[in-house]
Design goal:
This protein has 92 residues and is mainly α. The protein contains four helices and four strands, in the order βαβααβαβ. A two-stranded antiparallel ribbon has the order 1-4. α1 packs across α4 and α2 packs across α3. The termini are far apart.
């Protein structure tokens, strides 16, 4: 008996990769000071599709803000990107 695959015509969702996530965070550095504030991080999580971006920004700071200054410097960005990538955001 032959097997038929019925396609809906839609591609399967694809997760953002680390470079795409990094670009979103850098694009959200509104003032261009190379430091991401909590509001800029929240904005990036909104763009990624987080359900509660404010919560996700707080959790991201807890994970990636090594010097506890309340923002993410370029030295801490890799940890922030790794954290966000682990959440499995999908391109829509």
């Amino acid at each position: 008996m032959p097997f038929y695959y019925h396609s809906t015509g839609k591609a399967a969702p694809i997760n953002y990769d680390a470079e795409q996530i990094r670009k979103i965070f850098l694009d959200c550095d509104i003032d261009g000071d190379k430091v991401l504030s909590k509001d800029e991080i929240k904005s990036a999580f909104e763009r990624l599709g987080a359900l509660i971006p404010g919560y996700r920004a707080r959790r991201a700071l807890q994970h990636a803000d090594a010097n506890n200054d309340g923002c993410i410097s370029m030295e801490e960005l890799n940890d922030l990107v790794r954290y966000a990538a682990g959440r499995g955001y999908r391109i829509k």
